[in-house]
What we know:
Layout: H1 2-20, E1 35-40, H2 46-60, E2 65-70, H3 77-91, E3 96-101, E4 104-108, E5 113-118, H4 122-126, E6 133-137, H5 144-153, E7 164-168, H6 176-182, E8 189-194, H7 204-216, H8 218-225, E9 234-235, H9 239-248, E10 254-262, E11 267-274, E12 280-282, E13 292-297, E14 306-312, E15 317-324, H10 328-341, E16 346-349, H11 356-363, E17 371-375, E18 382-386, H12 394-408, H13 416-423, E19 425-427, E20 433-435, H14 442-453, E21 460-463, E22 466-469, H15 472-480, H16 483-494
Parallel strand pairs: 1-7, 1-8, 2-5, 2-6, 6-7, 13-16
Antiparallel strand pairs: 3-4, 4-5, 9-19, 10-11, 10-12, 12-15, 13-14, 14-15, 17-18, 19-20, 21-22
Amino acid sequence: METGEAHRRAAAWWQEFTKTNNAAFxxxxxxxxxxxxxxxxxxxxxxxxxxxxxxxxxxxxxxHRFLVCRKVDKTIELxxxxxxxxQAGRYYADALDRILKSPRSLQFKxxxxxxxxxxxxxxxxxxxxxxxxxxxxxxxxxxxxxFNQLDIxxxxxxxxxxxxxxxxxxxxxxxxxxxxxFDRDDPRARTSRTTYRDNRFLSxxxxxxxxxxxxxxxYFYRVYALGxxxxxxxxxxxPAAVEAQLAKGIKPLCCGEFSYTYDGLRMGETAFVRQxxxxxxxxxxxxxxxxxxxxxxxxxxxxxxxAAQVLDNRTGEQVAMLRGQxxxxxxxxxxxxxxxxxNTALLGVEVNFSSYxxxxxxxxxxxxxxxxxxxxxxxxxxxxxxxxxxxSKTRPVMIANLIQSFRExxxxxxxxxxxxxxxxxxxxxxxxxxxxxxxHDDYVMALAIAHMIRPQQAYLVPxxxxxxxxxKSMLQDYERASAAEKKYLKTLWCEKG
Length: 497
């Protein structure tokens, strides 16, 4: 009889719960993972559910002491505290003992308590002891250090499972929350992603407001409506165009690295060796007579990676890339081989942090390095030097040049990692274009260098009547052509008759 009554009550409770909650959250009401990570857009109902789960446990599991917190204390009153008071009065009035506004807390007849605090007052937080569960609202506002401090506070013994609930909008791709809970597998964590479309209680007006951002603010719509990872600054490259390229899922024809003979002085025979995890990615094999340009970014501040981008110099199409961690001499030899492989490509290497690579290429007698002109500080004479220097004058120009190229022809960038770097390339509060905090720009800068040096590589190809230069109209026709048409035009204009 008692068992039957218990089952009846459980069924009645579940029926009531499903009537007042969204189906997307049903699996999480009994979830026992240490970390329950609720990511989503605005209006998805994640905060309502988090509050409901806290209340349910406080009302049915005696002796709990839950901490509900946000980064800034003054935001608690109008958000979490007001929401939980409303839900408690509606669903748990019989279990509730009293509500205190100073200090803010909800107290239950079974001895459970829910307390509220901001994380901007560390001393106040230190005074909160005996915590058995935590809900962090707008978790994207707190630092990982803040989170670690909360995590170690959830250590008191309890007859019930201990859990930290994190609810937030996915602010940007380099956020510690993404790296900690979404980019790696943690058996102690369970993650969820919801949008306003999962919330059946959302009003038509609220839905219309969120969907309206699709036309007025693309970034806001992606992050706050669709719950997608965003960027922390204003994107330099069109996110829609980048994502459209990513959606194509273009894979390289092959990967590998170059083997070579080297006697300590000169390079000998070179060969491309296919390897599944090779440092060289080939998207288009070199074609006879076609000119190529290579931009190379050496490892410097904030990066330990080297990168090089290979372009078809007639069209600007990305045809190959070299990336990885190398000693500089090894990087120079791989660049040598890559340049020779692509028809002795024009090779422009950044020299901001080290000129070793250019000097090594010169020693190896690489036949075609990019040459820059500069004025000697002492003699004021015009000096010609190998390598590309990125400075306050050249950097804005090279970025603007790449922006224009990608805006007009996004289909020319094919590599996934390059495109993902472009998503994280933003303008800061001073409108300077750079990788957002925690991200890298090695592939983007190598691509920008490759585009900048193109004018120094002759747009010459062997034609039916000798060596010919592609005219501007020919280039435009080629850029507008389909894949089949491009193949035909190459045959018409580039092959010997």
